[in-house]
Amino acid sequence: MKKILMASAATLALAGASQAQESISIGVILGFTGPLESLAPGMAQGAEMAIAEVSESGLLLGGTTVSAVRGDSTCIDAAAATAAAERLITAEGVSGIMGADCSGVTGAILANVAVPNGMVMISPSATSPALSTAEDNGLFFRTAPSDARQGVVMAEIIMEKGIDTVAVTYTNNDYGLGLANSFETAFTEMGGTVTLVAAHEDGRADYSAEVGALASAGGDALVVAGYVDQGGSGMVRAALDTGAFDTFVFPDGMVSQALVDNFGAEIDGSFGQNPGTDSEGAAIYQGMASEAGFDGTSPFSAEAYDAAALILLAMQAAGSTAPGDYAAHVMDVANAPGEPILPGELGRALELIAAGQDIDYVGASAVELIGPGESAGNYREIMIDGGELTVVGFR
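and the corresponding structure tokens:
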């Protein structure tokens, strides 16, 4: 079935080449301000590198060029994120959106802007399980796995380290609650004990009361399902200052260079995980990023490259830049069967599609889309050792 769809799409692409738009733009909407602002640059640079690669190839729909237009999701302000997305669509006329980043604002943009306007969104980092069942009219995809899986992976890592009693703090939003719930369920099923699950609010100056409640409940480690540039780091600082906990478990919202910049050797022995892979594509991408002057190992950077690439490859498969036309082709270009496509090979992918051949976009994060258009998921396991963040494995 995929071969038939791809061949017909290629025919459309060739037939419509003379009518191709001279230029289009892709929205890149991320939290350039807010609790994940230290991660946004790496994600934006990844997406924009894919956009530039396609544009410079001159092979998209008979020579259509592509540019990126940024919008600030703030990560936490749904109204501001919605306004930014509306601007991208109405004022900038984007043909697709790479983003958003945090789950709450992603859901708000999807419901209030993308679905009403028929706009495709591919998020590199919105991981709330609730997004799996959101009403999206087939327009929403994500290259980072759902926290339904991260909760299980995190529980497995903790149990393997011989820790069977933990407390959990989470940022009080869709991301934090979804991850806390999935982790608690998985950890309990594995025989672990969660002493207390408690929310924290971002933007507070003092987290001693929250840490005090968690310390009273006890636990051999504190799971911090928060944001590294906001309350998550505030909770860690309060726990260290009071001696409440000295071992922390960090899921994806906390794993970045900012974490070790904030705490260094104070959190030695702590550990965690974030989406990542040791695939051939990941190594190629990291080399490309280094050459371009940014860190390709930055969390969700590879996923952002892949998200932007999928939008553009789906356009080629559909023979159209209209979201209503190419949305149905995202899963086709992302999965087998077909010629595997790695980072740096987007031009070749465009040629293959135009020639009526199947592609299987593997990309920088070993892309495989399942179910309602989301990533099957790969994780890298990290440890804080000697004040540095070290990758110790993949799963």
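(Above: one complete record from the training split.) The CA atoms of residues 127 and 146 lie 5 Å apart.
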